[in-house]
Amino acid sequence: MSIPTANKPFTIQDVARIAGVSAMTVSRALNTPQKVAPDTLARVQQAVAQTHFVPNAMASGLRRSRARLVAALLPTLVGPVFQEMVEALDRSLHDRGYQLMIGQSGYDQAREDDLLRATIQRRPDGIVVTGVVRSEEGRRALRASGIPVVETWELTATPVDMLVGFSHAQIGAAVVDYLHQRGHRHIAMVSADDQRALTRIEAFDAQVASLGLSRIAPAFTRPPSTMGSGRQGLRELLARNPEVTAVFCSSDMLALGASIEARELGLQVPAQLAIVGLGDQGVAADASPPLTTVRIDGTQIGRLAADMVVARAEGGSVSPSVVDLGFSIIQRQSS
Amino acid sequence: MSIPTANKPFTIQDVARIAGVSAMTVSRALNTPQKVAPDTLARVQQAVAQTHFVPNAMASGLRRSRARLVAALLPTLVGPVFQEMVEALDRSLHDRGYQLMIGQSGYDQAREDDLLRATIQRRPDGIVVTGVVRSEEGRRALRASGIPVVETWELTATPVDMLVGFSHAQIGAAVVDYLHQRGHRHIAMVSADDQRALTRIEAFDAQVASLGLSRIAPAFTRPPSTMGSGRQGLRELLARNPEVTAVFCSSDMLALGASIEARELGLQVPAQLAIVGLGDQGVAADASPPLTTVRIDGTQIGRLAADMVVARAEGGSVSPSVVDLGFSIIQRQSS
DNA sequence: TTGTAGGCGTTATCAC
DNA sequence: GTGATAACGCCTACAA
């Protein structure tokens, strides 16, 4: 076997030469086989097979101004939070002949702008962003690029383009109401501290106040949200505020950790401590006790985002271009 | 604001015109700023800022035959198994100016070949595959492409190109030895049924036999490996073989589920049932009790794969081109 | 049904 | 230090 040095791969020209046709005919055989005579087609296919020719997508994308590629930008791949959405996006896009390209931004602003620029460079047919783009720089770059954009997982009055999300403020308030109705008077949060989480916290605190309860400062966790940080968060919270009888965790993994920690501390869930998670990504239902959680339909977000992006990439228009998907509280045994 | 139709984004020509220079000078200003006069540079930068110009990576990639892109192909993004590796890959590549593109293949053969082709089309500077490529078709396509390839997470006598992995057979045997030494005589597996898992099972069974123990059929789970399937797997296993005193789970999420289920069944871990996981991705250490697990250094795999791919993409050679990273059994309280 | 010419946006090369 | 030219590999438009 030869040393795998940069022996240039075959081009459409090479294949054409081997098949005894023009490059254009090879292109047709590959893209619109019905427009090629059967025996010509066979000769081309034979040459393609023989050379293992794979067309160069940079060249065809350049010529067509269509990359058949959609980019998804996520803060992190760690944890189950965005998996449903990515899964659904991937499936939907694949079915329509688009490839999904995933980029990780971290929860860091500079990194996000970097990634945004790198993504725009590839001229994908669409960009799906997790969360809303906050930097003016990033927003302008996106708009100037002319690429269809879907922001997700959050609402905003000023989307860059399209949006499919839900209200974190509503979630914060709804969870307070839910726990209050179930008799809890000392309720608190174990939460990440990203923008979406802060929005929930603000609404949570406001609702606590409007019900005449006293505000308890949340225990903040560092990203990524893991079982371990959930355990630590709950420990800190209860050390500081032992009167707490109910916690709302900003993700199911945190809630799972909190549940484990509660047991370690000798607290019965839900009798002595009620726990509510966020996301509902399987772990919640599979835990013991099964966790009450705020369900976010990631699959639906992914599907809608794919629909929107593809529609616009193919010249259609999308309406409504802003969708609030809402959420629901799934009651299980942890509360 | 204008309707976001396909108003063509600016090209390097537009920027050149605005800055009053040639396209070539803009290109230099962007790529080798030290080679242009300071005031020219300033004029170009001003024009770039004004237009929000972002260079077209398809065009530059085509011209340079370098995409500054590395593709990682994963069976799934669900679950923590490959996260460490992806995280490390992303970080290493980003630091060197490469972008990481992630593709999901599912555990499906046809889908994998599809994804391989789609990936080769983009002409990335390297491809990192999780697991070894099994289809002859896929292997040939990869070799013909001339793209540096790193297979990971597994060993094989016939790598496509480079490889950084570890021996699943050794793991299977080592876990049997470990549990046997700790006095267990009825040991079994709760396992996924992908190729790597099957290799572990085979070696596990062989070692069980060579120690004179009787073989117990594993409980198979469907991908993805979740806590829920771990719970179900253990339930099935114990229903069939109540004599089992130790289980080896093919991932930490399965082990976590098994641990939960054991508790539900009223079994003390580890007194009545020992549990060993695989992966060591945080959840193992954060569980209660903390889980004994076979540690795989995903970070190291990611880093090495990035090193290898970049070295080769930049014309260097890599040696050794096959690395066995090994594994270690981390003893915690579940065994 | 097939082929020829030209250009997508960028950069290597060589000339000034 | 800067610019003109050509070429990367493919496909649109048009011609045969």
UniProtKB/TrEMBL annotation, chains A, B:
Domain HTH lacI-type: 10-64
Pfam families with a match to the protein in the record: LacI, Peripla_BP_3
Alphabetical list of SUPFAM superfamilies matching this protein: lambda repressor-like DNA-binding domains, Periplasmic binding protein-like I
Coiled coil: none
UniProt key word Transcription: yes
Keyword Transcription regulation included in the entry's annotation: yes
Keywords per UniProt: DNA-binding, Transcription, Transcription regulation
Record GO terms (molecular function): DNA-binding transcription factor activity; transcription cis-regulatory region binding
UniProt xrefs under InterPro entries: HTH_LacI (IPR000843), LacI/GalR-like_sensor (IPR046335), Lambda_DNA-bd_dom_sf (IPR010982), Peripla_BP_I (IPR028082)
Name of the molecule in the record: LacI family DNA-binding transcriptional regulator
